[in-house]
Design a protein that fits this description.
The protein is of the alpha/beta class. It is built from 18 helices and seven strands.
């Protein structure tokens, strides 16, 4: 009943369901979500909480470990997902599989799929099966580490609420979605992508005779600039520069993840989402990449839920109509509702202030994209193992403190001092994560040009133009 009430409240007031706008029912479901999460990945099953950024030239998918206690964990998750009834574990081979060109692209392959049309509709990405598969492949400690890596410098409650809203406040489905995401992030190697960064990824693919990662940046195929009228960072994709055969699907996938994780750094509270502009001016059928689009859709729907605020398809050519008929059938209705089409540059002004819109789109912002390559010096801190370990320990202790406070918060609903202490720990955890970041994540183009600051804020240079 509380699930239905929470959903109705969100539908009535779209601003509800966020950290500072929770109703009583929504907050109670957040407590239940934390309870399930902490019980599933309980400390007694956790050897050590670490923050590994992976081998410099290996993605984490190469380090899967069979779980000796998988049967007990599978029965536990079966209880969660089925209201107390035991359920036989589902298995999965999800992982990195080779495509026809000999490259490795992410292709989840569960051995058991939902059987009915309703089940398929309700579990589009087989998240219940992926959850059980995750518990077969990883220890609670590995999943717990992945969860705190996923949280990053964001409010942990904010992350959990994304999954709750995406699964219509059903805590069991939200848990399945979260753990499915953790499995995916471990298999595709999100932390390794961030640790390698621009030069590391170019070298990684060069060793596999798969050039093209740096070309994505040099061409200006994608860049981020400014914020829209809602304060969301704007990510531009210039479709005319993309040709499917110029790079492998693996390069496209890793580049997409690198972009999405970089944009995450640009989202400043209280904003929670980003603005995506598909600039299709000058594009044609040769620029269409259905596999790439499918992967992006899956990322937004399954792995980065509630992170897309609006998607603007700008100046779509007539040939796009046939492609759109295919794409539209793949979209979740919630994601589809966020897509808008603009024909002329002036139409963009409905969504973006003139002084925040670049002049080549008819705005007043004179900024032009020009890629600046990385330097060896900018990532020197990643070699400072002693300092990194010190900062890791600080963050790990704060994580443990926050988990303990959360356990108490679950039971002591009306303890205002406890809530205050928990909120203060969130701030400390964010600060510790930001201080750790340059030791585990390679700097980006946006750090180089001064947009991304190490205190977690962004500087788009608007104030400088006003002086």
């Amino acid at each position: 009943m509380s699930t239905t009430i929470a959903l109705q409240q969100q539908q009535k007031d779209p601003n509800s369901g966020h950290v500072d706008t929770l109703t009583i029912e929504q907050e109670e479901l957040l407590r239940k979500f934390w309870t399930l999460f902490l019980n599933l990945l309980s400390p007694e099953n956790d050897e050590n909480l670490t923050y590994s950024n992976g081998d410099a030239l290996k993605f984490e998918s190469t380090k899967l470990k069979p779980n000796s206690t998988s049967s007990s964990k599978s029965s536990k998750v079966g209880t969660f997902l089925n209201g107390g009834s035991s359920k036989k574990s589902l298995n999965s081979e999800g992982g990195i599989s080779g495509d026809t060109n000999g490259t490795t692209s992410y292709q989840p392959k569960p051995t058991s799929r939902p059987s009915s049309k309703k089940e398929i509709k309700d579990d589009k990405y087989n998240e219940s099966g992926e959850l059980n598969a995750a518990l077969e492949l990883y220890t609670p400690g590995e999943l717990r580490t992945a969860a705190w890596r996923l949280s990053g410098a964001d409010d942990p409650d904010l992350i959990f609420l994304r999954f709750l809203r995406a699964r219509k406040w059903d805590v069991h489905k939200a848990l399945a979605m979260l753990v499915s995401t953790l499995k995916w992030s471990l298999q595709i190697g999100v932390s390794s992508i961030l640790a390698l960064g621009e030069p590391g990824l170019e070298n990684y693919f060069a060793q596999k005779n798969l050039p093209g990662f740096r070309a994505q940046l040099e061409l200006g195929k994608n860049y981020c600039r400014g914020t829209d009228r809602e304060g969301r960072p704007i990510c531009f994709i210039n479709v005319r520069f993309h040709k499917k055969d110029d790079q492998s699907l693996e390069v496209t996938q890793r580049f997409t993840i690198w972009v999405m994780e970089t944009v995450r750094l640009m989202i400043e509270p209280p904003v929670e989402t980003a603005c995506l502009v598909f600039n299709m001016a000058g594009s044609g059928l040769q620029n269409m990449d259905l596999q790439g689009v499918k992967f992006m859709i899956q990322c937004f729907e399954a792995y980065y839920p509630e992170s897309l605020g609006i998607c603007i398809v700008h100046k779509a050519p007539w040939v796009f109509q046939s492609v759109w008929r295919i794409i539209s059938t793949l979209l979740d209705p919630v994601v589809a509702s966020k897509i808008h089409f603009t024909r002329d540059d002036k139409d963009l002004l409905e969504f973006i202030e003139p002084d925040h819109l670049m002049s080549n789109f008819g705005g007043q912002d004179p900024w032009e994209y020009k890629y600046i390559p990385s330097t060896e010096e900018e990532n020197e801190r990643m070699n400072d193992v002693a300092t990194k370990e010190e900062k890791l320990k600080v963050r790990e202790q704060l994580v443990r403190n926050f988990e303990e406070l959360t356990r108490r918060w679950i039971d002591e609903k009306f303890n205002k001092e406890l809530k205050k202490e928990r909120d203060e720990t969130k701030i400390k955890l964010r600060r510790a994560t930001l201080e750790l970041d340059p030791y585990v994540r390679a700097r980006t183009y946006y750090h180089r040009i001064g947009v991304l600051r190490e205190d977690g804020t962004c500087d788009w240079g608007y104030s400088d133009r006003q002086k």
